[in-house]
Amino acid sequence: MNLICVMMDTLRTDHVGAYKDGNAKARSPNMDRFAEQSLLFENAYVGSFPTLPCRRDLFTGRWGHPFNTWDRMERDLPTIAETFRKAGYTTGLVYDTPMFMTEGNNLDRGFGSIEWIRGQGGEPWIADDLIDIPLPAAEHKVKAPGLRRYLTNQSRRRWESDYLVARTMTEAVHWLERNYTRDHFILWVDSWDPHEPWDPPQHYVDQYDPGYEGDKILYPCYGFSDFMSDAELNHVKALYAAEVTMVDRWLGYLLDTVDVLGLNEDTMVVLMSDHGHYFGDHGLQGKPWGDFGQLYEEMTHQPLIIRHPDCKRPGKSTSAMVQPCDLFPTVVELAGLKAPQGIQGTSYADVITGSNDSHRDLVISGRNLNDNWGTVPATISDGTWSLIYWPNKDLAYKHKPPRQETYPCTGMSERREHELFYLPDDPGQQNNVLDANLDEAKRLHQALLDLIAETDVDPDIAVTYKSVPGQE
């Protein structure tokens, strides 16, 4: 069996037609077509959040939250690429997600070939004092330093084929054309799009907000969303939807190539994301931290669609609850390989092959640890109840508490509050029912304590999670 994994960073489920019966907020015809041939996971959820910690979960099959910070992947842990490579697989990585290399994070470890598509985010690539890079919006509305560098990196772009997702998917196609005749291979394609900045060609933007005039907030600040007017926020949503549609187009090019090369009969293809993004949801914008760090459904619910030659339910969906650390043991089992010791995730191969339709009883999502933030929230959900839990809420910040990025915030009430939501009646998580349902909150909190007990959490960190919601 061959394996192709395609990561699309920051893709929300409500922008994929297959998740919304064709009523999504973006057009995604290629993802929808792929879902008709695959098994769609309705309850895939973030484990460690955000980008870098999620990749660690995926590559090591181990939990990162709540004890692993935004840091390099440990060299002593076996990885998915190393495991397949030792078994004789050709292993390839094609990516533009900048922190794979720019921060020395060892995420490329184990891959036999590596193609880095340069220029994403604010990574240091092009320096050109001969061009002027004006910001497309008022400076206080955008992440100005990173946006300027990104726009400089993209200053030589002329055609849609020059855009980063196009370059990334095209390079993945080239890799397949050079390696599809191998006995076995694994190809990991990591696209940072549709992560911001959002600057797709205008013909995509016009599908969602034609005729807009005003600030183009390509890289909005994180925090409250009310620094934007209604028209500006609507255009930000349009830019994101347009970016998703552009990503879908170039993903289609890759998927068509898999078909043309005759790989469908012996290749497992995984489409996924690492987390969502707030667009005014709960009054928030982006992936804010500190007091704004709650992980609601819009952030934790992940797209996950898997096509496998032995899947007995193509075009169907499953309600099985799965998390990123489960992928490593799953693909190892399906490939008939032996999983290395130390993996903490559990295989859902039986869900893919159709002999089971359940996996986890609940899912746990959490932010990467950072002392500057004082405390980091976790979300525990069983699909019916969802608890947002703040460990040691009174833990003092070591530095000035982060509020928002470049715009003022005054009169803000305490936000580090435990919240419990009953999802069947409140899918938007607007009504905190903690006080009336303390037993449910205690049950979910105990599941978090159980995870901490089962993993190698430092005792000084573990103790901060002991406080029971509603009993402080």
Key phrases:
alpha/beta; 5-stranded mixed beta sheet; Arylsulfatase, C-terminal domain; Alkaline Phosphatase, subunit A; 9-stranded mixed beta sheet; 2 domains; 472 residues
Task: Output the CATH topology of the largest domain.
Answer: Alkaline Phosphatase, subunit A
> Helix count?
12
The CATH architecture assignment of the largest domain turns out to be 3-Layer(aba) Sandwich
Helix-strand sequence: EHEEHHEEHHEHEHEEEHEEEHHEEEEHH
CATH homologous superfamily assignment of the largest domain: Alkaline Phosphatase, subunit A
Any idea of the CATH class of the largest domain? Alpha Beta
Could you tell me the strand content as a percent range? 15-25%
Total strand segments: 17
Number of domains: 2
Topology, pairings included?
Elements: E1 2-8, H1 29-35, E2 39-45, E3 48-49, H2 51-60, H3 80-86, E4 90-95, E5 113-116, H4 144-153, H5 164-179, E6 185-191, H6 202-205, E7 223-224, H7 230-260, E8 267-272, E9 278-279, E10 284-286, H8 297-300, E11 301-302, E12 304-307, E13 316-322, H9 327-334, H10 349-353, E14 363-367, E15 378-381, E16 385-389, E17 419-422, H11 438-454, H12 459-462
